[in-house]
């Protein structure tokens, strides 16, 4: 993460939580998060309620991990167009989506949940090996018209879940303290 | 009959490195993590020297091919050079052999067998080399988390005669119930004759942790030969420095930073970390030997020759953070075999190698008492009379950073709401400012030396923590827990104390005083604002050469530098693409001297990378 992006993240978190700036930096017990956060404006409105709750799409129909299984990805625009080349093509939002697809430019979706770079968190080992559900960390996505951060993903939340699942909480299980 | 490499190695291990090079000709190799077995970090090479270092150029770059940016990896490894081959470890702790003159990859050993680990790869600061007397068996020993791999140095294949098909599980045969505990070895093994010795251990809490017993093995078979219990057992020396009933429960006291060898005496030197857990010791009242000690052990038997405890009853995470460095000190007309031990606090202790007595003297300084119920701190702590600390050891209110008004105001507010001011400020329920913090002062980069100039070189930083204790919940392993432990920084990531924030210091070993001290590294954006060069924190240490140079990288400005050994002037610098958070090495093969640094990034705002960069003259 660049210094500017880090500064922006820290400032935003501080403003949201009303705690001192320095308290956001790596405390063993993190400050309380004031959740939920307001939904960010997305470049194209997208309803998880419609797609997941009503149409029954699996999360993995759109979101796949990277090659190594760590980061969950936004869907490629072609994935969206697999349906929307024929569905709701008169919608201005879908037309905007089609423009992205035509230009080859990725839709600049705003990420809601993000693990820090120094956290070794692999989606696949949690969802496939341990059976953690997407909703455990992201909330009842299938009920949400708009996505927003409503579940804590700070270190305390991680450690509490590890305790529940009898998983290690040693520092170097998730970090490389060099 | 010794071959040339064995002859040079034996002289080097005996602390005769300069003479070794002269006896053997021009070429010389960095065969151990610390250059020689005693970790003097001195190379008797002068092809690259004060007059021509300005012409140093990139000779080759080796990309390991396995780094990750999210999650981020780094490289803390110093390569070793044997018979023209560099042995190194990658961001994910594969072991690789490359041609030392060209960087050409010769082989790769992947401990994961091609599988992608979901866990952080861990750190390893070097591999170790051994060859049999007849030269038939040549082995590389590679630590990876809780396993040790014995590899054929020529092929990278596992040695089927060592332990279980070439792999030694370090969690076993440890004289401790290891169920539910982790273990890691982050430093190379040390080998004396056919005896291989290693440290390592678990973390230091706040959970139950493994201890750090030191073990010796048959280098050929992996059979355990002896164990030194760093938490003494009933009847052992030092048992009385703990409560009677904790010896089989307490953890920590581990040698994570590496060991060094005096092959002439047949002695092993090891430095240990704090007992666990490392910020509260109410359940381990006493001095807690052999936590935070320099240990001199007999390689053949594991028996203790001497020890020196540098922190009594540690509650600050002041592990001894680097290999003891076996050096020679010329003082008052006499040459002394010595041991230099740097500390996170920024102290440099120098001991007589035979007796363990401090060469420059030490006083026991009275330190504050703890206000946390149940905690009984030791009333004094050792402070060397010389050299002076290489960074600030107290953080008084008037030392608050003033690089801008907002930072100054925020940090004053924090300071005023904390217990703060002096070194050894005890952890408290209110919150304590701990300075130097748990990353030093000085860290695992340790020190380097120049026996001809009688100088010791140390890099150090200003780093501050705030820690807070609170009562533990029912069922937790200790009565008190950490409710906060974080590095104190301003909103832009700068330290809370007034600059400077990073140094390199040259210490005159005759007087024990500073010969010179310079600020190391800079934040260009602060320089552009007109703020004098501040220095930055650094990860990784320095090396020194007979060319009158001290090389090091490690700063957050991602630069590799050569300092003038005589006065600290920067004679050369090179902008690395990623931070060089490791200690470099140097060697001369086929008549050409190289300096190599791992530039793996992954700390500060440096993105991860996978490069080893070699420099030479033309």
Give the gist of this structure.
The complex is a heterodimer of chains A (178) and B (618). In chain A, 41% of the residues lie in helices and 0% in strands.
Layout of secondary structure:
The complex is a heterodimer of chains A (178) and B (618).
Chain A: H1 3-17, H2 48-54, H3 59-62, H4 77-84, H5 92-103, H6 123-130, H7 134-138, H8 155-164, H9 171-174
Helix pairs in contact in A: 4-5
Chain B: H1 4-13, H2 17-24, E1 42-43, E2 56-63, E3 80-82, E4 85-89, E5 95-99, E6 105-109, E7 128-131, E8 138-144, E9 147-152, E10 167-169, E11 190-192, E12 195-198, E13 214-218, E14 224-228, E15 259-262, E16 267-271, E17 293-298, E18 304-309, E19 325-331, E20 334-342, E21 348-352, E22 362-366, E23 380-384, H3 405-416, E24 432-434, E25 447-450, E26 455-461, E27 465-471, E28 480-487, E29 502-508, E30 514-519, H4 524-528, E31 543-545, E32 549-552, E33 559-564, E34 570-575, E35 585-589, E36 592-599, E37 611-617
Parallel strand pairs in B: 1-31
Antiparallel strand pairs in B: 2-37, 3-4, 4-5, 5-6, 7-8, 8-9, 9-10, 11-12, 12-13, 13-14, 15-16, 16-17, 17-18, 19-20, 20-21, 22-23, 24-27, 25-26, 26-29, 27-28, 29-30, 31-32, 32-33, 33-34, 35-36, 36-37
Helix pairs in contact in B: 1-2
């Amino acid at each position: 993460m660049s210094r500017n992006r880090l500064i922006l993240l820290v400032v935003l978190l501080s403003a949201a939580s009303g705690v001192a700036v320095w308290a956001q930096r790596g405390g063993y017990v993190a400050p309380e998060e004031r959740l939920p956060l307001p939904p960010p404006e997305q470049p194209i409105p997208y309803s998880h309620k419609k797609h997941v709750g009503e149409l029954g799409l699996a999360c993995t129909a759109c979101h796949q991990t990277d090659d190594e299984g760590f980061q969950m990805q936004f869907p490629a625009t072609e994935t969206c167009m697999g349906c929307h080349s024929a569905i709701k093509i008169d919608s201005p939002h879908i037309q905007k989506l089609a423009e992205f697809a035509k230009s080859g430019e990725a839709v600049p979706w705003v990420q809601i949940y993000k693990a820090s770079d120094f956290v070794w968190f692999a989606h696949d080992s949690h969802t496939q090996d341990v059976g953690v559900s997407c909703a455990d960390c992201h909330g009842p996505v299938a009920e949400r018209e708009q996505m927003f951060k409503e579940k804590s993903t700070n270190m305390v939340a991680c450690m509490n879940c590890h305790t529940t699942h009898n998983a290690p909480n040693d520092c170097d299980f998730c970090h490389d303290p060099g | 009959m010794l071959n040339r490499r064995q002859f040079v190695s034996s002289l080097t291990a005996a602390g005769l490195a300069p003479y070794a090079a002269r006896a053997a000709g021009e070429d010389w190799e960095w065969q151990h993590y610390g250059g020689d077995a005693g970790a003097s970090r001195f190379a008797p090479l002068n092809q690259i020297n004060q007059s021509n270092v300005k012409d140093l150029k990139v000779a080759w770059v080796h990309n390991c091919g396995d780094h990750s940016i999210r999650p981020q990896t780094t490289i803390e490894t110093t390569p070793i050079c044997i018979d023209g081959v560099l042995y190194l470890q990658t961001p994910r702790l594969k072991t690789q052999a490359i041609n030392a003159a060209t960087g050409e990859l010769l082989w790769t050993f992947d401990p994961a067998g091609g599988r992608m680990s979901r866990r952080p790869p861990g750190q390893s600061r070097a591999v170790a080399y051994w060859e049999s007397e007849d030269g038939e068996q040549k082995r590389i020993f590679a630590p990876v988390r809780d396993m040790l791999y014995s590899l054929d140095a020529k092929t990278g294949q596992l040695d089927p005669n060592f332990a279980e098909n070439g792999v030694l599980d370090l969690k076993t045969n440890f004289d401790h119930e290891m169920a539910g505990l982790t273990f890691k070895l982050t430093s190379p093994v040390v080998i004396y004759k056919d005896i291989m010795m290693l440290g390592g251990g678990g973390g230091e809490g706040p959970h139950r942790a493994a201890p750090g017993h030191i073990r010796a093995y048959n280098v050929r078979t992996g059979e355990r030969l002896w164990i030194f219990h760093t938490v003494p057992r009933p009847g052992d020396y030092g048992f009385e420095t703990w409560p009677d009933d904790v010896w089989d429960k307490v953890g920590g006291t581990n040698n994570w930073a590496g060991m060094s060898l005096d092959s002439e005496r047949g002695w092993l030197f090891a430095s240990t970390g704090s007992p666990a857990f490392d910020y509260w010791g109410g359940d381990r009242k006493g001095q807690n030997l052999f936590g935070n000690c320099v240990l001199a052990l007999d390689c053949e038997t594991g028996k203790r020759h001497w020890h020196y405890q540098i922190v009594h009853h540690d509650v600050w995470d002041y592990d001894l953070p680097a290999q003891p460095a076996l050096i020679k000190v010329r003082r008052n007309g006499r040459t002394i075999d010595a041991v230099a031990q740097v500390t996170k606090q920024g102290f440099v202790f120098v001991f007589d190698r035979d007796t363990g007595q401090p060469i420059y003297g030490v006083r026991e300084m009275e330190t504050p008492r703890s206000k946390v119920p149940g905690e009984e701190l030791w009333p004094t702590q050792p402070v060397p009379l010389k050299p002076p600390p290489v960074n600030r050891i107290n953080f008084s209110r008037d030392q608050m950073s003033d690089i801008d008004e907002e930072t100054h105001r925020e940090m004053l507010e924090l300071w005023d709401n904390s217990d703060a001011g002096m070194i050894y400020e005890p952890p408290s329920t209110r919150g304590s400012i701990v300075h130097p913090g748990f990353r030093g002062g000085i860290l695992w980069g340790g020190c380097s030396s120049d026996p001809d100039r009688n100088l010791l070189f140390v890099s150090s930083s200003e780093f501050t923590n705030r820690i807070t204790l609170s009562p533990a919940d029912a069922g937790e392993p200790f009565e008190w827990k950490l409710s906060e432990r974080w590095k104190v920084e301003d909103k832009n990531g700068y330290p809370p104390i007034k600059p400077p924030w990073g140094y390199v210091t040259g210490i005159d070993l005759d007087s024990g005083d500073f010969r010179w001290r310079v600020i190391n590294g800079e934040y260009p954006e602060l320089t552009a604002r007109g703020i004098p060069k501040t220095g930055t924190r650094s990860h990784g240490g320095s090396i020194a050469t007979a060319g009158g140079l001290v090389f090091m990288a490690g700063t957050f400005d991602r630069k590799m530098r050569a300092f003038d050994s005589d006065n600290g002037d920067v004679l050369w610098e090179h902008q690395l693409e990623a931070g060089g958070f490791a200690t470099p090495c140097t060697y001369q093969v086929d008549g050409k001297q190289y300096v190599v640094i791992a530039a793996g990034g992954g700390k500060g705002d440096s993105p991860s990378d996978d490069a080893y960069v070699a420099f030479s003259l033309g």
